[in-house]
Design goal:
Layout (H helix, E strand, L loop, with lengths): L5 E7 L4 E2 L4 E2 L2 E7 L29 H13 L5 E3 L1 H6 L4 H7 L1 H6 L6 E7 L4 E4 L4 E14 L5 E20 L2 E8 L2
Antiparallel strand pairs: 1-4, 2-3, 5-6, 6-8, 7-8, 8-9, 9-10
């Protein structure tokens, strides 16, 4: 079990190859929703690790591992978030702020009410490994709701979101560091 949302099944995909200076273990790692071992919609492709005999341990992850992870977390609802009134009030986000940007909100809500944001992925995020980075494509939607005095909510507007980001990982001072770039 990885966490409350996902589990990983790692099993040998071939018999271990034992050589004098090393052992080669090919593991196939599949991530799936916790308690729900389902077949992945992806097909694992084999790959090879470049020979570097000066290292004690080589560890490689394929696109398949990340794709099944994305599928498992999407299925478990991990990409659905509600940003509650307390967080929005900390940043002072209310209907008055949105009313200054979107005139229809100003017409609807004369009194400034706190807001709640609901964000959700509408499709399984796509992860692609590249030479020096990887990209994540995510499709989603967001809904902005006014929190009324009686604690009910009223939808103000919804929007569709499509994001494509590149993430590069580097090691600096023995720490794994990442940089994120929004492509579109």
């Amino acid at each position: 079990q990885i966490d409350d949302l996902a589990e990983v099944d790692y099993s040998l995909s071939s018999l271990p190859a034992v050589f004098r200076p090393f052992i080669d273990l090919d593991l196939k790692g599949v991530v799936f929703p916790a308690g729900n071992y389902t077949d992945s919609p992806y097909v694992a492709a084999s790959f090879t690790i470049p020979d570097q005999s000066n290292s004690m341990l080589h560890l490689a992850f394929s696109e398949y591992f990340f794709q099944t992870s994305s599928f498992a977390y999407y299925t478990a609802g991990a990409f659905n978030r509600t940003i509650a009134e307390e967080t929005c009030s900390y940043f002072n986000i209310n209907t008055e702020i949105f009313g200054s940007i979107i005139p229809e909100v100003a017409k609807y809500s004369v009194t400034p009410y706190p807001v709640m944001l609901k964000l959700m992925a509408t499709e399984i995020p796509i992860i692609n490994l590249e030479q020096d980075s990887f990209t994540v494509e995510i499709q989603g939607s967001g809904e902005v709701l006014a929190v009324l005095p009686d604690s009910t909510t009223q939808s103000l507007f919804t929007l569709n979101i499509a994001a494509n980001t590149s993430i590069s990982l580097n090691i600096f001072d023995q720490k794994l560091m990442g940089s994120l770039c929004l492509n579109r």
